[in-house]
UniProtKB/TrEMBL annotation:
<dbReference type="InterPro" id="IPR037151">
    <property type="entry name" value="AlkB-like_sf"/>
</dbReference>
<dbReference type="Pfam" id="PF13532">
    <property type="entry name" value="2OG-FeII_Oxy_2"/>
</dbReference>
<keyword id="KW-0223">Dioxygenase</keyword>
<dbReference type="InterPro" id="IPR032854">
    <property type="entry name" value="ALKBH3"/>
</dbReference>
<feature type="domain" description="Fe2OG dioxygenase">
    <location>
        <begin position="99"/>
        <end position="196"/>
    </location>
</feature>
<keyword id="KW-0560">Oxidoreductase</keyword>
<dbReference type="InterPro" id="IPR027450">
    <property type="entry name" value="AlkB-like"/>
</dbReference>
<protein>
    <submittedName>
        <fullName>Alpha-ketoglutarate-dependent dioxygenase AlkB</fullName>
    </submittedName>
</protein>
<dbReference type="InterPro" id="IPR005123">
    <property type="entry name" value="Oxoglu/Fe-dep_dioxygenase_dom"/>
</dbReference>
<dbReference type="GO" id="GO:0051213">
    <property type="term" value="F:dioxygenase activity"/>
</dbReference>
């Protein structure tokens, strides 16, 4: 059984995980495609507590023409969809029951790259839409922590897996991908989002 429910709270936070969302063929094709466009990735200059810092990972955005999604003071223009990314988007849209027009891709070059505790900004997203997170490459632990109870969940995100956050997840939980010493393989993470137009 590759599907599991990670969170289903009374206050409406939902997190689902499918360890084997992509087939082996889809997985290697998308990984190869992302490796090919790796030179488009760079560090985010993130505004945090009034200071600008370089993100400890590389980032690149793909999406429909002319879309803007701002987070933490960053306003990235999108690259056009690449074929395998578009194919994955279409399958994920079918699974989630709504379209996606934006994909934020993180590249964690080694276990030293990470993302700290945060909740994703949902005010620019279509209300009720999901954030669907596709992982490729190195297996890394992903953590979710309830903002008031501190209840913590950890999932080892496999290559080709899909984790979907929806409902009130961003309101009640933070998430992080911590450093993991000793990991030498890169990991790509693609979060598909439905950004509000205009
Ligand atoms: O790499 C991950 O699994 C999480 C990425 C993430 O939380 C984000 O891009 O907002
Ligand atoms: Fe996030």
């Amino acid at each position: 059984m590759s599907h599991s429910k990670i969170i289903a709270d009374a206050d409406g936070a939902i997190v689902d995980y499918d360890a084997e969302f992509l087939s082996a063929g889809e997985r290697s094709a998308l990984l190869a495609e992302l490796e090919q466009v790796q030179d488009r990735f760079d560090r985010d200059r993130v505004l945090m507590y009034g200071k600008t810092i370089d993100s400890p990972r590389l980032v690149c955005a793909f999406g429909d023409d002319g879309l803007h999604y701002r987070y933490a003071g960053v306003d990235r223009t999108t690259h056009p969809w690449t074929p395998h990314l578009r194919a994955a988007r279409d399958r994920i849209a079918a699974a989630c029951g709504h379209p996606f027009n934006y994909a934020l891709v993180n590249l964690y070059r080694t276990g030293d790259d990470y993302i700290g505790w945060h909740a994703d900004k949902v005010s620019d997203l279509v209300p009720g839409s999901a954030i669907a997170s596709l992982s490729l490459g190195a297996v890394r632990p992903f953590q979710l922590r309830h903002k008031s109870t501190d209840a913590t969940h950890e999932v080892l995100l496999a290559s080709g897996s899909l984790l979907v956050m929806r409902g009130t997840c961003q309101q009640f939980y933070k998430h992080a991908l911590p450093r993991r010493r000793g990991v030498t393989e890169p990991r790509f993470n693609v979060t598909f989002r439905h950004v509000r137009a205009g």
